[in-house]
Amino acid sequence: MAGEFEFIEWLRARQRRGGVVRVAAGDDLAVLDWPAGELLVVGVDQVLDGVHFDSRVHSPEAIGAKVMNRNLSDCAAMACWPVAAVVAAALPRGAGVEYAKGLYAGMAEAGRVFDCEIVGGDTGSWDGRLALSVTIMGKSAGVPPVTRSGARVGDGIYVTGRLGGSIGGRHMTFVPRVREARELATKYRVTAMIDLSDGLSRDLGHVCRQSGVGAVISAGSVPVHAGVTLEGALNDGEDYELLFTSPDRVEDPLVTLVGMVTEGDEIWLQTKDQRVRLRARGWEHGL
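^ that's the sequence the OP posted. Answer follows.
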């Protein structure tokens, strides 16, 4: 990439030490002081031009924010606190330094909402379309990580926010539910949790499968964005809200009880008149 070293120097000038970051980007590896007794939680996610965004429409800042926020949402899904991230960027040849700066600025701004610093990474150019990948590190910070496998028969199934219609723009502008997840996991017995990236119908299936349970969703209880159908709320994906289970009665204005965990392995949608199988119809990458 033309200007690669200029870009690297620009990045180095924006690195910040402090907190757990002893040595930030600029050497071959970053150095982190990890607090004693803290669990290290690690994840990686990527965004691809033409799949998760459209570089002809979306600004580099918006694209950068989305890839960081997707990773931050994964932290929310396990109720952990994000600490640091490393970024790998494959830029289209000729994209230019200013475009690369915009991507980084979007990622950095999204991360700093949660004091999560970018501490390193790699940048290259190629003849393909833009691809960005972020590896994020989080800490438990006093809240045991919540997995997908703890749902138990009789637990309520809850979601945060409203669902559906993300393609209208919210898939680029959402705020990860990091603080809300930690508050819920502190106040209530949250037995399983996942962020709704692939759609309620598909992501609930992940929880049920890994927990060895079934579920019933009440169609009339699903919180739906204005102008969106129930089908959209169940299947659109990229809402980045939380779905969680708990044996407690959760009373929070952000949270809606949408169903119950049941015996067996089937997932049902209960309407006024009938109960039908809820098929997983959210997003799935073809391989």
